[in-house]
Each structure stands twice: as C-alpha cells, then as structure tokens.
C-alpha cells in the first residue's frame, strides 16, 4: 500500500485516524497503541500477507534477545547471536541472488532460479532492530514493554522506507503517549503530509517521464546523444530529490498526526557546501546510522589518515550495497567514498575555493554518481557516461535549432528526441519549463522543514495537491524510489 495511492489516502489513513482516536478516548493510551500496531501489521500484510510472520517473528525474537541480554552473564554472545540472525536474514533475502549470479558467471555455469522474493522494508526494520540490540548492549536503549517496542519497529509511517529512528528518540514517545489525537498535531501533520504528496505527484512523477526513457534506452544498449543523456540525468537527479523529499515529508506528517515526532531526514542536500555536507543533508538518519554503527566501530578517524580513508571507503561501499543487490549500487557507494576521501585530503592542503565553485563541483559529482545508481547495469552505466561526455554525438529538437541557427554548428537537428516522444503529454517547451522549475526550486528554495508550519495553510495545500492530482496524474500510483531498498 503506497502513501500516494488513493486506497491509502482515502481509505486506510482516515480509518486509522478514527480508530486510533476512538481507541484512545474509549479505552486509553495502551489501546490506542495496540490499534496502531494492528493497523501497521495490516498495512504491511496488504502487499504480501505471507511475509507478515517474518516481520512479527523478527520483532518478537529481537525483543526476547534483548530481555535475555539485559540479565545474562554472556551479554556479548547474545548480542553477536542477535546481529548474526538479523544480518543473516537480510543477507539471504537481499543478496543471495546477487552472489549466486556472480559465482555462476565466474564459474561459467547456469544459475538455477532461487525463487527469492525480497520482503518489503526488510532493510529498514532490520536496521531498526540492529540499533536496539547494540544500544541495549551499550546500556543506551530505554527499557520498554513489548507494545512500545513493537510500535517502534512496526509503525507503518516509517516501516517501509524510513526514517531509521533511534530507540531513545521514539520509544519514550510511545511510552508516554496518552492516546489522544490533538487538533494542532493533526492539522500540522496533514499539512506536511500533503506537501510531501504534492512533491511526489506533481514534480517527481512528472520528471520520471523524462528520466525513464533515457535510462531505459541505455539499458537496451542504445547510444545516447549529449542532450539526451543530460536531460535524462538532470530529470532523474530532480526526480529522486523530490521523490525522497516527498516521502520524508509524508512519513514525518503521518507520525505527527498522532503526536509522534520523527527526526529530520532531508534538508536541501543539493545546496550542500561540500560532499560531507551533502551526507549531513541527504537521508540523514541512514547517514547517522552508518556513522555510529559502522564507521566509528571500524575505528573512525582515531587511527590515522590511511585507516580513516579505508574506513570511509568500507562504510560507503557497504552503504551502497545496502541500497540494492547490484554491483552498480556498490559503484555508487564507492564513488561517494572516493569523493569523501578526496574532500578530506583537499582540506588537509589548506587550499580553498570559493563557496559557489565548491557547491557546483559537489552537485556535479553527486549527479554523476546517480548514473550507476539508476542505470541498473554496468553496461547501461557506461552508455550513459559516454552520452554525458558527448561521445554519442549532439542532437537537438529542430524547433530549438530554428530559433537559434548558430546551434547548427555543433548540433544535428531532429524532429523529436526519443525522450520527448516518450513523454507524450508535454511539448519541448513544457518539458524544458518543468526542468527549469524543478531545478530552480532545488537550488533556490528552502526545504519545507526550514519553514514554520502553519495549520491555516492546510486547506490551501490540500486543494492544490488534489486538484493537480485529478487533472494531471497517471491512473496508477508510482512507487517511491526508496521502497525498492
């Protein structure tokens, strides 16, 4: 069930809010949280009920391990067992196919069909429970009852694609919740949710019409011209920005409706001053998780420059592989690892560039790294990079060349570029205007979370979001990009 689907917005969400409020009003806070948990399990089972026992078993098993670990003498053994179980489960479902295919290719044998289906949200609820295990071992996790813990892991607002919330940030909120739905929280949550919905439906899904054809053509082995490759990449860079920003807003808004505060997960990352600043702004909770539970335990920057660089590379490579079971994701993570190493080495020289230059270099590097992230295969990645470098030639729509004849010196006019033909509903002018609008918002406007939420704007936002939805959207809900991870 997608946050941007009509069945969620018009069906599940109103029913959940009414049921939560009635349970709290009639039977108290524990009943309200019990209803929240049952609604979350229903939400998870909507996709494939067969995986519901996996989620429930994971929650029950991890809670039991923590309770044993709190009083056991061999606490570290229980921690290692819990981590092995969680990561082993994640590894089987997410990476068994990749490693089997790689091994079969190396050995030159035919790969049997393993028949593995990736359970929805397993990467996210696994990381939630890894945090709880480690924090409990360190004595940093709050003691809690099973209901509070189950809500911490299973709350539908972050179950599928984050944010990855720390136990000490969220569990106390469930523990002290009084079961009431307050008007101020409800209105503010609805406003944030609808703003995120507008980002997803109006901008991200429209931009996908220009990103998908180019990357699809590269995946099919077709060479792309300079313009086609850059249009596809700029469209995808803006698409994933608004897709993930919209999802983050919607998750925060859903939690806010019932009085739960989620941490900020997205803060204008394309306005970052350098690559380290980018990772302090993009998927903030994942960045914090990788830093606190991988980079620092590996030694961080405490053991010299060479070890720090190695730790950065390991962290980013594993962070890339976490996003998907493909070597292209590891390449994406490796590129960001190289970026971070180069950035730290540059800072050691003492040389400085102007802020605008550094910001432009950072944005360019981030965009180039999106190529393997989106391309899917190394072959498609190479075709896209060739196109971006102009090695596939230069093509421009004939109407643009007619308006600026000097372009004939560098470009060959064509009637309609393939990516425009695939968009269908938009002309050259409309498509160009959409890209300019999107990137203008990205580079100049503050993110919604730097604005003060005013409840009186909710009706205006609601009217805007649903009017645009009714007029322009495709007859199906496009999944969020991060749902696949």
TrEMBL record:
Family: Belongs to the membrane-bound acyltransferase family.
Domain of life (superkingdom): Bacteria
Residue stretches spanning the membrane: 6-24, 53-72, 84-108, 114-134, 312-333, 353-373, 385-407, 427-446, 458-477
Pathway named in the protein's UniProt entry: Glycan biosynthesis; alginate biosynthesis
Pfam families named among the record's database cross-references: MBOAT (PF03062)
Alphabetically ordered keywords of this record: Acyltransferase, Alginate biosynthesis, Cell membrane, Membrane, Transferase, Transmembrane, Transmembrane helix
Lineage start: Bacteria, Pseudomonadati, Pseudomonadota, Alphaproteobacteria, Acetobacterales
Membrane topology, from the record: Multi-pass membrane protein
Name of the molecule in the record: Probable alginate O-acetylase AlgI
Localization in the cell: Cell membrane
Main location: membrane
InterPro entries attached to this UniProt entry: Ac/AlaTfrase_AlgI/DltB, AlgI, MB_O-acyltransferase, MBOAT_fam
């Amino acid at each position: 069930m997608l946050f941007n689907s009509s069945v969620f917005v018009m069906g599940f969400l109103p029913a959940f809010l009414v049921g939560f409020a009635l349970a709290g009003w009639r039977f108290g806070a524990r009943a309200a949280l019990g209803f929240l948990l049952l609604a979350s399990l229903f939400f998870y089972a909507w996709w494939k009920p067969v995986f519901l026992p996996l989620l429930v078993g994971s929650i029950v098993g991890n809670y039991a391990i923590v309770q044993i670990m709190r009083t056991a003498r061999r606490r570290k053994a229980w921690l290692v067992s819990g981590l092995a179980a969680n990561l082993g489960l994640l590894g089987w479902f997410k990476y068994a196919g990749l490693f089997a295919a790689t091994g079969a290719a190396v050995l030159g044998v035919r790969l049997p069909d393993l028949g593995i289906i990736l359970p929805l949200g397993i990467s996210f609820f696994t990381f939630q429970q890894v945090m709880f295990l480690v924090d409990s071992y360190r004595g940093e996790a709050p003691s809690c009852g099973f209901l509070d813990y189950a809500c911490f892991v299973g709350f539908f607002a972050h179950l599928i694609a984050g944010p990855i919330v720390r136990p000490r940030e969220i569990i106390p909120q469930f523990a002290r919740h009084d079961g009431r739905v307050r008007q101020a929280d409800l209105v503010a949550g609805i406003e944030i949710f609808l703003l995120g919905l507008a980002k997803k439906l109006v901008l991200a899904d429209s931009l996908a019409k220009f990103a998908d054809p180019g990357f699809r053509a590269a995946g099919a082995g077709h060479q792309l011209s300079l313009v086609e490759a850059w249009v596809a990449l700029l469209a995808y860079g803006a698409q994933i920005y608004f897709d993930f920003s919209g999802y983050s807003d919607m998750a925060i808004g859903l939690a806010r409706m019932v009085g739960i505060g989620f941490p900020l997960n997205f803060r204008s990352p394309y306005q970052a001053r350098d690559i380290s600043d980018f990772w302090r702004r993009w998927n903030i909770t994942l960045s914090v998780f990788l830093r606190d539970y991988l980079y620092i335990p590996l030694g961080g920057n405490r053991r010299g420059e060479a070890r720090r660089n190695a730790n950065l590379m390991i962290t980013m490579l594993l962070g890339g592989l976490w996003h998907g079971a493909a070597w292209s994701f590891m390449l994406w993570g490796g590129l960001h690892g190289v970026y971070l190493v180069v950035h730290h080495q540059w800072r050691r020289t003492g040389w400085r560039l102007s802020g605008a230059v550094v910001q432009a270099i950072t944005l360019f590097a981030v965009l180039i790294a999106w190529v393997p992230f989106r391309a899917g295969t190394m072959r498609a990645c190479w075709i896209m990079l060739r196109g971006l470098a102009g090695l596939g030639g230069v093509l421009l729509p004939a109407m643009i060349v007619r308006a600026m004849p000097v372009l004939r010196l560098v470009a060959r006019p064509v009637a309609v570029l393939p990516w425009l033909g695939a968009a269908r509903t938009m002309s050259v002018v409309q498509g160009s205007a959409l890209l300019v609008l999107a990137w203008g918002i990205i580079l100049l406007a503050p993110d919604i979370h730097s604005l003060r939420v005013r409840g009186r704007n909710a009706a205006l936002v609601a009217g805007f979001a649903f009017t645009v939805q009714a007029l322009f959207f495709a007859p199906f809900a496009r999944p969020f990009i991060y749902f696949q991870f």
